[in-house]
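Q: Could you fold this chain for me?
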Amino acid sequence: MNIVENITRAFKYKGYRSYFFWQFISFIGTWMQNTAQSWLIYKLTGSALFLGAVSFASSMPSLIFAPLSGVVSDRFQRKHILIATQTMCLIQGIILIGLFFTGIINKWHILILALFLGIANSFDVTARQTFIPLLVSKDDLLNAIALNSSMFNAARIVGPAIAGILIATYGEGPCFILNVISYIPIILFLIFVSAKEQLIKKIASPFSQMKEGILFAWQTTPIKYLLLMVGTVSFWGMSFSSLLPIFSDQILHRGAKGLGMLLGSSGIGAVIGGLFLASRQNVIGIKKNIAFASITFSICLFIFAHSHSFLLSTIVLSIIGFCFMIINAGSNTAMQAISPDHLRGRIVGLYSTMFMGMFPIGSLVLGYLANKLTVPYAVSIGAMVCLCMGIYFSFQVNNLTKETKDLIELRSNITVTLES
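A: Sure. Below is the predicted structure, expressed as structure tokens.
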């Protein structure tokens, strides 16, 4: 098997190929809307605090609903959940278009719509991640998850780049329209796709199931440390992205096109990171990669905070994107590999809580610090916290790797016994 065939193993499944492609189209639209919305907020307010507030509103529901979303994904057909959440996203986009083109849109409209979209996404992310095992075999699951992460970040390159050109030429409106159109194919795909039926058990109450998932994560040391790592980097690290319009306009003096290029360079690094993960055959040893990536991420974030060179900023952002992909998708795949099938939705729900739920609080905190101090110093504080976490995690790597190997071997032995 050559390197391309190895990286794209999951594409041999027709359902996954279609799912991958239509998600890609939808995510391009989503990133176009996100970029246009950030620029519109910046035009309306010029406030770092309000940029952080909108990021908070769009991601805060994940902190509340993501643990519940794992229970929902384990109790109901994930296909039906995705149809509902994607339809909610479509409705949000239509309302945004109506407000924008009637000329009555203001910052509070955007804040409320961001909150609505955040509620939909808090259930969508978990259902989307746990739908993948219904399209591929267990042997190709880790490859499929890594490819999905690469696809998401490839959309981060294409979407903002297109949005930057459209905003500079025609304004924000076309980005909002194209986003709405992008939801239609994925909704139709989900309606007609044939996927494996998941085993659904509704014996326990939803809150008992949630408690079961939390206890499993807390008592499983590798999962506990991975969740802590993802939460720290999301809160103190990636929340700097809500301030990118200010970096692009006031510090680097590149405007809307520069914002698209900055987001795109981060996306390029993330795609490369995803392909690196997709090339791996298993998750044993991946924590060493996560530890190294967390330290490199922190150093590059500090450099970016103080850079006045657009070229240097794009270079370090691509490294930041690569490292974040290793931390984020690497942790996701490791946790899914460790988790038993009947708990997968709840573990992914907890992962979504740390990944998406910590981001809004971090955005709000960094927006506040940026107002009180300066934008570069606020981001520098976040970089230092991430560095401390990376160093601490590095000291735990050997024990975590050994425990992960033992858990995966134990699960494999249990599976063989049940199938015998």
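A (continued): The two ends are 30 Å apart (CA to CA).
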